[in-house]
Write a structure and sequence with these properties.
This protein is an alpha/beta fold. Helices cover 40% and strands 15% of the residues.
Length: 286
């Protein structure tokens, strides 16, 4: 069995080409470019790297970007004040609060302060609720990227058993709902699930989103499984021990170069859509 690599860089490139055309057209019509405002709390090296990558991607596709830095010793109220100013700023198209923020801050409260029309990272609980009910909302960026990869490579998920390993509010839970909305049969597992291997052995599709390096092994999987590895751990290691899975998988996303590049591209895609919405276009249903 030949194993297909689901190359996220190819998917991201196609998305970026589309965004750039839309951004240039938007500028020609309205005289300005959509603006993504990113808030970063503290000096987490990984977060700083991700923000830099996102700002570089904005530049590639013709979007504007700004970064607002907040001291890690600040209060939740300080973050809320910045978010509220960005909500009210007509020049700001989309708002991204880089996760994670300081542990003493109320991250959920901050996420929910972002107005829905600028919640281009899909972190507001109202956005999650609308998405779950197949309403009009921006999607959490990584789940959106996973679905983009599935669509791009024409992976049939209707009626298939998808096992999602992970339950975070911005990854495991929303991607489970998106798969369910596409008629997959979904089982949600996590690091505390008893007899996890028994669930994995029945999976046609595995989405690894547990945040543990090499957590899923090949001997837990059945032949022909599609593996979507949304994990990214220190040392460029995913949640799947892919070397033990290659003889089982029909297709897989590599780490790095799989879900990650598409996540950034989807964030920019939704920022572009937010600008188009402001000019009268409706949110695109997913």
């Amino acid at each position: 069995m030949e194993t297909k690599v689901l190359n996220g860089k190819v998917v991201a490139k196609a998305l970026e080409e589309n965004i750039k055309k839309r951004a240039d057209n938007f500028y020609d019509n309205y005289g300005y470019r959509p603006l993504l405002a990113t808030i970063i709390v503290g000096h987490n090296p990984a977060s700083e790297m991700y923000v830099k990558m996102k700002m570089n991607a904005c530049k590639r596709v013709g979007l504007e970007s700004i970064k607002i830095e907040i001291d890690e010793n600040a209060k939740t109220e300080d973050v809320l004040e910045v978010i509220n100013k960005l909500n009210a700023d007509s020049k700001v198209t989309g708002i991204l609060l880089q996760h994670p923020i300081a542990k003493h801050m109320d991250e959920g409260l901050c996420f929910d302060a972002i107005v829905l029309e600028k919640d281009v990272d899909g972190v507001n609980t109202a956005s999650f609720g609308k998405m779950t009910m197949k309403g009009e909302a921006f999607l959490s960026a990584t789940p959106a990227a996973i679905m983009e990869i599935i669509d791009f490579y024409n992976i049939d998920i209707e009626g298939k058993h998808a096992v999602v390993v992970g339950r975070s509010p911005i990854l495991g839970k929303p991607v489970s709902m998106l798969l369910l909305n596409k008629n997959a049969t979904v089982t949600i597992c996590h690091s505390k699930t008893k007899d996890l291997d028994e669930y994995l052995k029945t999976a046609d599709i595995v989405v690894a989103a547990v945040g543990k390096p090499n957590f899923i092994k090949g001997d837990s999987l059945k032949d022909g499984v599609v593996i979507i590895d949304a994990g990214y751990n220190k040392g460029n290691i995913g949640d799947v021990d892919i070397n033990t899975c290659l003889d089982k998988a029909s297709a897989y996303t590599p780490v790095p170069g799989g879900v990650g590049p598409v996540t950034i591209a989807k964030l920019l895609d939704q920022t572009m859509t937010a600008a188009e919405n402001k000019k009268g276009k409706k949110l695109i249903k997913k």
